[in-house]
Amino acid sequence: MNLEEQLSITYRQLRLIAGWSLIIAPLLILAAAYLLEPTIKPTLSHYYFAEPNPGLVRTLFTGFLIFVGGILIAYRGFDNRDNWIHNAAGVFAVCVAFFPKGCDSPPELYCTSGLLSPLHAPSAVLVFVFAAWAVFNGGGFELRKRLIDEEVHTLQQARKASLITMTAGVVLYVARPFLSRGIQDFKVTILIVELLGFFGFAFHWLVMTSVIDKANLRIIIKREESKSRERELAKSLDSGARQPEQQSVVYADGEDLTLIP
């Protein structure tokens, strides 16, 4: 396996880990807390104080945010914009973990106020803002120019689905005061907003990985076809009269056949 293939596999694993973590980890947090106390809390941030002493639930909550944030910070996008959008989302995800929410009034049973709690809510909002921006950017022009029309179409459809999922919860939350009393009293609306945001972002990562996999398979096949043509050309030159020295082969369509990382 050469360096190019190793790089492609590394980025593929990063995307898959990020995508599945955004689905599995929030569900694990809810399940672990439900085993301790069979209730659903209003937001994921409330699960930081789900136990009398820091334990499994808090570890899952902070570990999830720091883990995904670290991946987004380490991830290098296809261009400078794609890179810093993901990096910013990662930084704010880590901030959400480091600066727990303030205590409600009346406070939750196990809540303790933190010195920098006011930074929690802005950091949480900015995580979703930059995550949505990352989905909207869709890898940027540098990725799309390496894809064929069918692959670009798939990526665009996935982007629409992800953004609809991510904004559906926000629309519900904003519209809640105008809906029925039962919906207004529904205490986990923000939790639904958060879960839909994570799931939409995850869908973006997983579909983008699938599209890049198909593009790289197409590139590998074209490489093999090109090598076969080169071998046939070399045989014809060896069997014929001495020809002037040939320059390196340039693909007729000018397509870049390096693997997409």
Short key terms for the protein model shown above:
261 residues, mainly alpha, 8 helices
Order of helices and strands: HHHHHHHH
Q: What are the segments in which pLDDT stays under 50 over at least 5 consecutive residues?
A: 245-252
Distance between the termini: 14 Å
- Percentage of residues assigned to helices: 55-70%
Average pLDDT confidence is: 86
Give the structural class: mainly alpha
Helical stretch count? 8
Domain count: 1
**How many β-strand stretches?**
0
Q: Sheet with the most strands?
A: none
* β-sheet strand percentage: under 5%
* Approximate shape: elongated
Radius of gyration: 24 Å
Offer a concise description of the structure.
By secondary structure, this protein is mainly α. It is built from 8 helices and no strands. Helix 3 (80-98) runs antiparallel to helix 4 (120-137).
Can you offer a commentary on this structure?
There is one protein chain. With 261 residues, this protein is mostly helical. It has one domain. The chain has 8 helices and no strands. The chain has helices at residues 3-36, 56-74, 80-98, 120-137, 140-144, 149-175, 181-184, 189-239. Helix 2 (56-74) packs antiparallel against helix 3 and helix 4 runs parallel beside helix 8. The longest helix is centred in the C-terminal third of the chain and has 51 residues, at 189-239. 28% of the residues are buried. Residues 245-252 have low confidence and may be disordered.
